[in-house]
Amino acid sequence: MTDKNPEVEQQLAEQELNAPQARGATQDEQLLETPRADEFTHTDTWRVFRIMGEFVEGFDELATVQRGVSIFGSARTPAGDRYYEAAQETAALLVRAGFSVITGGGPGIMEAANRGAFEAGGVSVGCNIELPFEQSPNPFQTRTLVFKYFFVRKTMFVKYSTAFIIFPGGFGTLDELFESLTLIQTRKIRDFPVVLYGSEYWGGMISWIKEKMLEAKYVSERDLKLLHLTDSPSEAVEIVVRSQDYLRQLGGDGYDY
Q: Domain total for the chain?
């Protein structure tokens, strides 16, 4: 067993005795205590700055996006799938109607929508997210952003969209769907169209909402009217256009923020 060095032991004891925590330091001292350089970028304070930076970058990049429509759906939908082709057609029709297209920037339905907008010569925005498994941005974007935090990314979808069109997807798609419905229901955001594409896929969920949630009075008939169901790209776009026209008749300017 190695003998302890008395000098080293005394230095360690003095350091422990003088540490702010050991001598009952004030809150100010603890606040001003400088962490090691390799620890600073992992603190909550530094994380707040990163979050602020993402908001600033997103707001700055998307401030000029007009009449945006966010299109959601599975990243696993392959090219050639009927929903892929429908998303591509829907995005192209939106561009021709004067809208911009916003997606999560990845593969599948996101790629299809960006592709439709890009090939139609419109604004095609991709709001990508960093994931533990790599999600590469698809190549059909005129503006590309990359976010670390899901909640910052979702803020961009809501803030710069006049409508959501939602194709079949998994947990992420459902998250975006129900968050938008919650925000509209609680009047945190203005009422805008939430269009579900694919009655075969979404029909069971809507029936469940009616049979379970509505009967239990957890939602109202008005809440159900927030959803529009279609199997037609042109009808999906028409729903969005009608909503814009209705607001203009009321003296507004559509859903532009």
A: 1
Tell me the pTM: 0.80
The pLDDT value recorded for residue 169 is 98
Average pLDDT over residues 186-200: 94
Q: How far apart are CA 231 and CA 237, in angstroms?
A: 11
Pairwise CA distance, residues 20 & 5, whole Å: 25
Q: How many residues does the chain have?
A: 257
Cα 49 versus chain centre, distance: 19
Residue range(s) defining the domain that contains residue 207:
49-249
* Angle between helical axes of 150-159 and 44-62 (0-180°, round to 10): 30
30 in a structural domain: no
* Residue recorded with tokens 């067993």: 1
Residue 163: pLDDT band (50, 70, 90) is: very high
Structure-token pair, residue 21: 């925590």
Q: Is residue 21 part of a domain?
A: no
In DSSP terms, 71 is beta-bridged to 165
pLDDT band of 47, cuts 50, 70, 90: confident
CATH number at residue 131: 3.40.50.450
